[in-house]
Amino acid sequence: MADAAVVGAGMTEFGVHDTTLQELFGEAAFAALDDAGVEADALDALYFGNAMGGQTENETHLGPRVASHIGAAGLPVQRFEDACATSANAFKNAVQAVDAGVHDIVLVGGVERCTPVTGKETPEMTRIFASASHRQYEQPTGLTFPGVFALLTKRHMHEHGTTEEQLAAVAVKNHAHGTHNPRAHFGKETTVEEVLEGPVVADPFRLMDCCPFSDGASAVVVVGGDLADSFDAPVDVGGVGHATDVVPLGDKADLTATQAARDAASEAYEEAGITAGDADFAEVHDCFTGAEVLASEAIGFAPDGEGGTYAAEGRTSLSGDRPVNPSGGLKAKGHPIGATGTAQIVELTEQIRGTAGERQVTDSEVGVAHNLGGDAATTVVSVLEAHS
Amino acid sequence: MSDLSYDEWADAVREGRLLGLACSCGHTNGSPTAACPHCGSRDLERVDLPTEGVVHTETTIQVPPATFETRGYQVVVVEVGDARVMGRVEGDEVDIGDRVTLAGTIAEDDDHPAPVFEAR
Ligand SMILES: [Zn+2]
Question: For the whole model, what pTM was predicted?
């Protein structure tokens, strides 16, 4: 078990924010600090994630800027970029730092704006997102990120018989969960029929198989285990795993395995001393419906080949035996790239505290977060547990 | 270290050839790296990959990035011998398992070529 705890958590609504990056981050950061009951002067460091600010808004070297905005200039700030796994990597490094005794109290979080408030419409933002695929061996084909996951999902459908209806069931489930999340980008339900009638983005994915472009920020306060009891509502970090896989995707050993997720999950479960069966729920990286199918298999929430079946049968619903994405996931909650990883940690924290309201998972003592970056090339898996 | 650079790989693609790197561990790389991505060996042999192969997976992209002007193009990963390469399909659409053959290149993205395949 990692010698670390999450003692504060906060996030903005995910959606459209015509607000500067530092103001957006500040809202999440102060929510996390207030939840922990500490001021910025108590912090030893900031671990900060932003994936694409240089490309989307001509903003780099954001660390000191956001630290200044929240009254924490002077702190050591490390900034992380790992595509969509950006702030989970920041979280991992913060956990390791407090576990090792390098720091006592750390703020971890991320911010991103991806909607047209950046001045970038869909074609330009699609191109910026595609920069996380291989410049020489993938991008020249015109590959997009829906395309990346379409290639992986088509192979899964071929090998395991996963159907478009099963993919649509993932979207229906996550939209239903999102209706219970006041911070979700989308707050309305959908149906399998509605998903299957949508325009194709990259087959088998239609519009409703894809997460939205979102703006938002999230943050958590992480402390060493010896300090956990001095806070009101600590949640223990059981373990964190982090692995990469071969890029470009054609050279991966197995396109449907998402091997980095399997390796990261094994590492996190081993550190936490659990198996997948001991976990009560998971937040996974459902940037596309097919991505949730692959993820739920990779972290052991469904047997290989049955991720789609589990969704269609309701087993991964809030009321099912293996709940996945009670927050609504990226699909309904939204996906402001650099904020997504720590937003998953926010959801785990609230679920384990039992404060998730209408979307509360029953008996939620152990939660798993799966945050994936690039063409399934980076994955961070984190296990959080009720404080012992 | 392997002696196959990106520029040599790209020149070969423009000439209608696919170059790869074979490792003694059994993996053959469809795109050049300095060492085997699976075992780390730097002792890789440059090989000419077959220009015919089988579709491993495919998708048709209807929402392209800004630099690509026409929508509705098919992107494939093709098994060529022991390696896989990513490319485009022109002509009839193909399915997983279909046989395809190298038919040229596209260079819509600056001067970066991508192999183009067509159904056999
Ligand atoms: Zn090798």
Answer: 0.98
